[in-house]
């Protein structure tokens, strides 16, 4: 049975090259010898070193993608918040399957994304743990819920601000320890401060809302009504 090929970026040619072998099939000494040559340049030409560099990149890119696929499937089966949001989406007429949650490579600006046409993007090269993935998927599924339930127009800065406020607040993205790991510590309304900051940053990445002051104004305008709207939850998760 052939192994799957990750979408978005194919560091090997699936038509002519097999996917990278599982490390269990490699000879340990040979593998570490090749890695030593890669990082030191001992005994290799520039062209050979570039070939080795690509080989290592291919191996780890494939492993990260495969790990993302496995963790996503596990969370869809076992995470209470992910299962709850998937159930609520189905009740709202917007059922999501694993094909709607895609593991794809991303740039350094984000760990996930949502598009009404493409579904949820899980950035396998930007996630640091299964907990981070869980929060990221929950965040994006809240965007999906808002789009399904309220027909958001993400070109509208107020609509976008509202869903970013809700997603940051309800997904676990602004938990105390996560904020501390980011280097943000406040003893007064830390959750609200985090939600405002995260929502504003997200809006500034929207070309329709990145003019000076626009993101801040939109977040301030809708903050109270959107922050207190915890649907589909009874309270902040």
From TrEMBL:
The keyword Chloroplast does not apply. Belongs to the peptidase M76 family. GO terms for molecular function: metal ion binding; metalloendopeptidase activity. Coiled coil: none annotated. It is an enzyme of class 3 (hydrolase). Its EC number is 3.4.24.-. Has a dual role in the assembly of mitochondrial ATPase. This is Mitochondrial inner membrane protease ATP23. Keywords: Hydrolase, Membrane, Metal-binding, Metalloprotease, Mitochondrion, Mitochondrion inner membrane, Protease. The keyword rRNA-binding does not apply. Transmembrane segments: none annotated. One of its GO terms (cellular component) is mitochondrial inner membrane. One of its GO terms (biological process) is mitochondrial protein processing. Residues 1-26 are annotated as: Disordered. It is a peripheral membrane protein.
């Amino acid at each position: 049975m052939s192994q799957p090929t990750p979408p978005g970026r194919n560091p090997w040619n699936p038509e002519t090259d097999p996917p990278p072998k599982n490390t269990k099939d490699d000879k340990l000494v040979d593998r570490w010898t090749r890695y030593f040559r890669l990082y030191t340049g001992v005994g290799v030409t520039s062209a050979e070193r570039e070939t080795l560099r690509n080989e290592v990149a291919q191996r780890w890119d494939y492993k990260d993608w495969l790990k993302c696929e496995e963790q996503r499937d596990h969370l869809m089966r076992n995470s209470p918040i992910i299962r709850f949001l998937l159930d609520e989406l189905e009740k709202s007429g917007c059922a999501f399957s694993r094909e709607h949650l895609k593991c794809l490579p991303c740039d350094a600006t984000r760990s996930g994304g949502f598009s009404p046409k493409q579904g949820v993007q899980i950035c396998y090269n930007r996630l640091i743990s299964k907990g981070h993935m869980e929060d990221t998927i929950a965040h994006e599924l809240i965007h999906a819920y808002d789009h399904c339930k309220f027909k958001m127009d993400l070109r509208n800065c107020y609509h976008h601000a509202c869903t970013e406020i809700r997603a940051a607040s309800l997904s676990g993205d602004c938990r105390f320890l996560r904020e501390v790991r980011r280097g943000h510590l406040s003893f007064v309304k830390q959750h609200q401060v985090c939600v405002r900051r995260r929502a504003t940053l997200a809006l500034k990445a929207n070309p329709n809302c990145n003019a000076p002051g626009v993101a801040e104004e939109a977040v301030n305008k809708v903050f109270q009504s959107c922050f207190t709207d915890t649907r589909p939850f009874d309270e902040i998760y």
